[in-house]
Amino acid sequence: AAKGEEDQFLVPVTAGQKLRIAVHARQLGSMLDSVLIVRNAQGVELARNDDQPGSEDSALEFTVPANTAQLLVGVRDMADRFGPDYIYRLVIRDAAAPDIAATIETTVINVPASGTAVVPVSIGRTNYNGPLRLDVGGLVGEIEVAGNEIPAGANTTLLTLTAKHGQSLASLANIVVRATQPGVELARYVEGPSSGSASSYQPHVRQSLGFAIGPAGPIQIDWDASVEREKTRLGTQLPLAIKLTRRDGTVGNVRLKLLTTQPMPQKKIKENNKDKVVDDLDRALRLASDTPVLAPETNTATIHLEIPGDLPVQDWGIVLVAELLAPDGKTVVASSNTSAQTIRPESP
């Protein structure tokens, strides 16, 4: 509020505590070029930061010294400027406290009318390994959400959004990941990829997702709910019944592939007398080798999911992708996804 002013905050701390101290200013649209200063209660400077890499906002990691019960945290402007354009938010977090982060590889989600879009979500965990839930806000139209429950310990999920009707609509949406373990209050926005300087200086733009229901695609794949699902057992094949819908005039073979939440297992092999790490497909959830390419006249099929005998017993998400092929049998003309389903294998 005055030229050269430094705001100071007296913070109760514990000796040995590891803190993350950050100023949010430029990322909120403020003119403040912040300087962050940490002192002890007697005013002796202990740490200082002007800019962090990739941002003009200040932040630092700080371990509380011995025999220290209070810190004096100061914020000022580098050029002593002041006024209503120089707002900021000061955030102080205990690095040992539970935290989560979640990211996706897109900022645009297009759902075909009466079809499904799949959005892989990656989870980062800090001192929290419990279950999570994804809450999707801002959607328009009648949208069915699946794959939004994330089991304890899992670091990925396949979120699917299915448009139940064909009306074209658009909106800005967001996704929030929440801890669902009793007694843990924790929620964070899911963020899209960085877009260079724009998201560096305004990181909140990564939280806004373009969402739209667009035209129907030439094919649509769904689970056949009329077929009773067998129990999922380790070391066996699980039959999966599907149905395929083609728009009038759509011809061509349709290739099927599988998406799962299982991280690809790895193994070491010898190649030219050197160790090499490769994917261990025999230990991965996968489609059986006899999985068909659906001919133009085929609209229903039962495919088989190979379940490894050593797969950990937990919830796994699966999504089937149908790819319409050009006459060359290789080029993908269009694709469609099922909604996400969850399997939990049992010991035979």
Task: Give a summary of the structure in a few sentences.
The chain is mostly beta strands and 348 residues long.
Question: What does it look like?
Answer:
The chain is mainly β. Helices cover 1% and strands 49% of the residues. Strands 8, 9, 10, 11, 12, 13, 14, 15, 16 and 17 form a 10-stranded mixed beta sheet that branches. A 4-stranded antiparallel beta sheet has the order 1-6-3-4, with no helix packed on it. Strand 21 (266-271) and strand 22 (274-279) form a beta hairpin. It is elongated, with a radius of gyration of 26 Å. The protein starts with 6 loop residues before the first strand and ends in a 5-residue tail after the last strand. The mean pLDDT is 92.
Q: In angstroms, what is the radius of gyration? A: 26 Å
Overall mean pLDDT stands at 92
Q: Indicate the percent of residues in helices.
A: under 10%
- Poorly predicted ranges (pLDDT <50, ≥5 residues)? none
**Proportion of beta-strand residues:** over 45%
Shape: elongated
Descriptive key words:
348 residues, mainly beta, 1 helix, ten-stranded mixed beta sheet
How do the strands and helices of this protein lay out in sequence?
Layout: E1 7-12, E2 18-24, E3 34-40, E4 45-49, E5 59-63, E6 70-77, E7 89-94, E8 99-103, E9 108-112, E10 116-126, E11 132-137, E12 143-146, E13 149-150, E14 156-163, E15 169-179, E16 187-191, H1 197-201, E17 209-214, E18 219-223, E19 237-246, E20 254-260, E21 266-271, E22 274-279, E23 286-287, E24 300-306, E25 316-325, E26 332-337, E27 341-343
Parallel strand pairs: 8-16, 9-17
Antiparallel strand pairs: 1-6, 2-5, 2-7, 3-4, 3-6, 8-10, 10-14, 11-13, 11-15, 12-14, 15-16, 15-17, 18-19, 19-24, 20-25, 21-22, 23-24, 25-26, 25-27
